[in-house]
Design goal:
Keywords: Membrane, Transmembrane, Transmembrane helix. It is a single chain. The protein is 78% helix and 0% strand. By secondary structure, the protein is mainly alpha-helical. Helix 3 runs antiparallel to helix 4. It starts with a helix and ends with a helix.
């Protein structure tokens, strides 16, 4: 039951991070974030790792809680930049 709960929590979180990394010209579209998540499985794994790290880090060092949105936004932006570069190259 616990692995299912983890996957049900990680999935929407990764899609939400992919949605927030969309270019500013587009509005926040969960369907676009879902399409980009399905199209790039490596990006899903990288963002899931960032989310897990952002979950475990404040557990060990609570003073870092205010700094957590920065690395998550950075990870989402980098994954989106890799996705657009892969689409241009391929």
């Amino acid at each position: 039951m616990a692995p299912v709960l983890v996957l049900l929590t990680l999935g929407p979180t990764v899609v939400a991070l992919r949605t927030t990394a969309l270019p500013a010209a587009r509005r926040l579209s969960p369907s676009e974030g879902l399409l980009r998540s399905v199209a790039g499985p490596r990006g899903i794994l990288l963002l899931a790792g960032a989310v897990v790290l952002a979950t475990l880090l404040p557990w060990s060092i609570p003073l870092l809680i205010p700094l957590l949105p920065g690395p998550l936004a950075f990870a989402a932006t980098v994954v989106d930049m890799r996705f657009t570069a892969d689409r241009r190259a391929g």
